[in-house]
Amino acid sequence: VTLYSHQGGPNGWKVATVLNELGLKYRTIFIDFKKGDHRKEEFLRLCPNARIPLCVFHRDDDFAVWESGAILLYLVQHYDPNYTLWSRDRKEQSQITSWIMLQVSGHGVIQGQAFWFKFFHHEAVESATRRYIDETRRVYGVLEVRLAEAREELWDHAEREDVLPEALHTYPVWLVGSSMTIADLSYLTWARTAHRLDIDLEQEFPEVGRWVDNMLARPKVAEAL
């Protein structure tokens, strides 16, 4: 697999974490936007939107998949026979897909706009900056509610089984099911930069903060980043 990425872009690193978790061999080519690498004919032939990430699957006749959500889904559907980051249950597959769609349409793109107006726009536009930061914060609130529900489900299960682990309040919980999936990893590389927008996950969204820490503590994730 060849991954076309960018050193400062969360979406490329998002794909790298999944490739690493699945144990796939890949090489990374970092695109230099300032040099116009993304506008070269050979790149546009693979990715008409001229953005990263892009993955070329050499085992599949050099098939190119672009857009991070599409790449994650392709990876688990074709390169995850043991359902390491996917689910065998069709309803859970749909839930995983829903969380990924929220990430690519309502999380990463919004947080990216918040970064743009806070750090890069040619003039200060406080209303735009505040609007995007507030919406980013709202999405973290949605994640917080879901993860809190997952922890409550964990408590209910433990009580039914008459098993109460000492550290249940910090035990890893996930967006869908009982193990980490691509739904969780799709948010990680953006969430770890939320502090740059003065969003304190540990204080404002403690379940999200623990969730991020649990993913970052995984050796294959840490290796990818």
Automatic annotation (TrEMBL):
<dbReference type="InterPro" id="IPR040079">
    <property type="entry name" value="Glutathione_S-Trfase"/>
</dbReference>
<dbReference type="InterPro" id="IPR036282">
    <property type="entry name" value="Glutathione-S-Trfase_C_sf"/>
</dbReference>
<dbReference type="Pfam" id="PF02798">
    <property type="entry name" value="GST_N"/>
</dbReference>
<dbReference type="InterPro" id="IPR004046">
    <property type="entry name" value="GST_C"/>
</dbReference>
<dbReference type="InterPro" id="IPR004045">
    <property type="entry name" value="Glutathione_S-Trfase_N"/>
</dbReference>
<feature type="domain" description="GST N-terminal">
    <location>
        <begin position="1"/>
        <end position="83"/>
    </location>
</feature>
<dbReference type="Pfam" id="PF00043">
    <property type="entry name" value="GST_C"/>
</dbReference>
<dbReference type="GO" id="GO:0016740">
    <property type="term" value="F:transferase activity"/>
</dbReference>
<feature type="domain" description="GST C-terminal">
    <location>
        <begin position="89"/>
        <end position="225"/>
    </location>
</feature>
<comment type="similarity">
    <text>Belongs to the GST superfamily.</text>
</comment>
<protein>
    <submittedName>
        <fullName>Glutathione S-transferase C-terminal-like protein</fullName>
    </submittedName>
</protein>
<keyword id="KW-0808">Transferase</keyword>
<dbReference type="InterPro" id="IPR010987">
    <property type="entry name" value="Glutathione-S-Trfase_C-like"/>
</dbReference>
<dbReference type="InterPro" id="IPR036249">
    <property type="entry name" value="Thioredoxin-like_sf"/>
</dbReference>
